[in-house]
Design goal:
385 residues; mainly alpha; Growth Hormone, Chain: A
């Protein structure tokens, strides 16, 4: 598959991944789901991803990464189109689990395919892949505008159809043989047990889990907060999600420059969590929509590079365990996105979405404390083997 199609597919994959947030009020109105039931959709999405992770441990050594990508897209496309052509809410829960299953294969497989088939250009292609995801997430808030209300199912079907066209074209227009780079043999990894015994690695991973749970809460419920509690128009609701992802995208772009200029991942992560947590804590106190949008953008920007910074830092501690670190990061993120958004909806039903978002800020403050412990310990070298 040519890189152009991998990038184009990941752009619309990002739209599919982020549809729930700006459409959740329309879904609730037409299917009569409660807040906690709509939060369950997010949890089932992550359960599907966990099942995919478990099965991938078996298939990853038997199938090429690009094959896993194609399987993931086929599952994702079927689920999206079925959401578009069916009715009721019972099937929706199952289909969201299927979407979660497919998205993990797409995410991990796309990175692996670019790193393997285009090994010499991986340092260019992989950051570009993540930028395309951020761009798709940014566009989502506006993509859904024609589909709000009773037409929300057509948003899912439309993305499914576009992905189908791109996937078919990617098989018709094949890369030239000379464009492919011979896949290098992977570095033999050492035992993964020392990582699981290393306190700093565990604390840093827990911090990342809290951040990714907080990020999912923001991506899903900030648009709902803007519509239900701030009483904003559909355009402003879409903008609330857009400014969050613009902040994330910008910070991820500049984090690489900062690292090249000598900045360290831990301090950047530490102060990013603190600033993002403060912005979320102040959000329910915002007196107008302009200040609310500024705080939302600041939250996305401050903590946005946490994932790549985590990978850079922990890979420097355990350079021969990078594959296991990537798996741990995905599992931690899946668990964080599965548990915390659902708990937030339970709190929102009892109080308000504003207070629920403040809980998300507390998660970031706890993540800040975990990273602070890691930084102050000064023991970031691998545990004794």
């Amino acid at each position: 598959m040519q890189p152009l199609f991998i990038f184009a597919l990941i752009f619309f994959y990002a739209i599919a991944y982020n549809l729930l947030g700006p459409l959740v009020t329309s879904i609730m109105e037409t299917t009569h789901l409660t807040l906690s039931q709509s939060g369950l959709l997010v949890s089932l999405f992550q359960i599907g991803a966990l099942v995919s992770i478990a099965l991938s441990l078996y298939f990853i050594k038997r199938l090429r990464q690009i094959t896993l990508v194609k399987i993931g897209y086929i599952i994702l496309i079927l689920a999206l189109i079925l959401i578009g052509i069916t009715s009721g809410s019972a099937l929706l829960f199952f289909l969201y689990a299927a979407i979660g299953f497919g998205t993990f294969l797409v995410d991990s497989g796309s990175n692996g395919a670019l790193a393997g088939d285009y090994f010499e250009k991986k340092e260019l292609y992989i950051p570009l892949l993540h930028f395309c995801y951020s761009a798709g997430a940014i566009v989502t808030g506006y993509f859904i505008l024609p589909f709000r209300g009773a037409n929300w199912r057509w948003a899912y079907a439309t993305v499914g159809i576009i992905l189908t066209i791109l996937l078919v074209l990617s098989q018709v227009i094949r890369p030239k043989r000379e464009e492919l780079t011979k896949v290098e043999e992977p570095i033999q990894t050492e035992s993964n047990i020392p990582l699981l015994k290393n306190r700093n690695f565990i604390l840093y991973t827990l911090a990342l889990m809290l951040y990714m749970g907080s990020q999912q809460i923001c991506a899903t419920w900030i648009p709902v907060y803007a519509e239900v509690e701030l009483l904003q128009s559909p355009a402003i609701v879409g903008t609330s999600l857009t400014v969050f992802w613009v902040g994330v995208a910008i910070s991820r772009l500049i984090s690489g420059v900062l690292l090249q200029r000598g900045f360290k991942p831990l301090p950047l992560t530490l102060w990013g969590f603190l600033l993002a947590g403060a912005a979320l804590a102040l959000l329910p106190l915002a007196s107008n929509i302009v200040s609310a949008l500024i705080l939302i953008a600041l939250c996305g920007f401050a903590a946005g590079p946490a994932i790549p910074l985590y990978i850079v830092e922990t890979a420097s501690w355990f350079p021969k365990n990078s594959a296991f670190i990537a798996l741990v990061y995905i599992v931690a993120g899946t668990v964080g996105r599965m548990i915390f958004p659902y708990l937030t909806t339970r709190l929102a039903e009892a109080t308000s979405l504003g207070y629920a978002l403040m809980v998300s800020s507390i998660m970031l403050f706890v993540a800040f404390l975990f990273v602070l412990i890691v930084k102050r310990s000064g023991k970031t070298e691998p545990a004794p083997r």
